[in-house]
Amino acid sequence: MGIAKLVLSWTNDTEISDVKDSGRLPPSVPNGQRVYAVGDIHGRADLLADLHRMIQRDAESAPGTPVIIYLGDYIDRGEQNREVLEILAH
C-alpha cells in the first residue's frame, strides 16, 4: 500500500466560489509559504523517506520554511512502524 499524498499550494489570491456570501474567508497560506499534507503512512518508512526527499526538492523553489502536516494513520499494516515513528520524531 502506498502513501496517499497531497500537496497544497494555496496563495492569498485563490478564489473559492463556494465561499461567496458566507462570511467565511477562503483557505489560504501566507505568501511565499508552502504547506504539504501527507496522509496514511501505514508503517511505510521507505515511502515516507522518499516523500520527504520529494518535499525537500520541491521546497527549495519556495522561500520560507515548508510546513508538513501528517494526517491519518502513521502505523498499521506496514512492517516499518518503529522506523516511521523515528522519522516523524526527528
Largest sheet: 3 strands, mixed
**Strand order in the sheet with the most strands:** 1-2-3
Q: Quote the average pLDDT.
A: 80
Assign an overall shape.
flat
CA-atom Rg in angstroms: 16 Å
Distance between the termini: 24 Å
Portion in beta strands? 15-25%
- The assigned structural class equals alpha+beta
Q: What kind of oligomer do you see?
A: single chain
Number of helices: 2
Low-confidence stretches: 1-14
SSE order: EEHEH
Residues in helices, as a percent range: 25-40%
Number of strands: 3
Would you give an account of this structure?
Helix 1 links the parallel strand 2 and strand 3 (67-71). 27% of the residues lie in helices and 17% in strands. It has 90 residues and is α+β, with helices and mostly antiparallel strands. Helix 1 (45-59) packs parallel to helix 2 (81-89). The chain has helices at residues 45-59, 81-89, and strands at residues 4-8, 35-39, 67-71. It is built from 2 helices and 3 strands.
Question: What key attributes describe this structure?
Answer:
three-stranded mixed sheet; flat
Task: Give a quick summary of the entry.
The protein is α+β, with helices and mostly antiparallel strands and 90 residues long. 27% of the residues lie in helices and 17% in strands. α1 packs parallel to α2.
